[in-house]
Amino acid sequence: MIQRSEYYRKIIHIFNLVIPFTYLFFLESRFQVLRILVPLTVFAIVIEYLRVRSAVIKKIFNNFLISMLRIHEMDGKYTGATWVFIGSTLTIAIFPKEIAVISLVYMSLGDTMAGLVGRKFGKIKFYNKTIEGTVAGLIVCLLSGYLIQLSLPLVVVISGAFAAMIIELLPIPIDDNLSVPLFAGTIMTIASTVII
Questions:
Q1: What is the pTM of this model?
Q2: What end-to-end distance do the CA atoms of the chain give, in Å?
Q3: Can you tell me the distance from the alpha carbon of 135 to that of 21, in angstroms, rounded to the nearest whole number?
């Protein structure tokens, strides 16, 4: 059974598509996007700092978001939202536009689908994840990558989809909102240089 708060988290996760789609459709240059993302990322990190050290900020934060926080986030670790800002900022700063956009779409859609399907239907466990969730996430990544592949060769997009879901499945101590777009972006960059 998936708790309602988890659905809320996943809906918010899907809304993270605002970042890559704003970059793709509305802002041409990396600099324009980073001019918005960097201050938002810094603000998120400052709020993370204050919610642990300031009773007032912690109370305000908890009044609005406590039901959606996971245990490690309640214990003072960065929230998924902050990692989304960090992951998005680094991905856009490091990778070419097309690769950055698709990597962030994989982070938003693939990770969301993997989590929902894994929690609802997952039977085959791999550490704290499920194979069913990973396969569902991979299918969504492949479909979304195919639909918005831009000028990238299809094999590059496919390699990124597999990379995103492999890193999502592995039990590494790095938040998925950081590891998925950076790993997918790295593999797509390598694949595009090998192909070209």
A1: 0.91
A2: 47
A3: 25
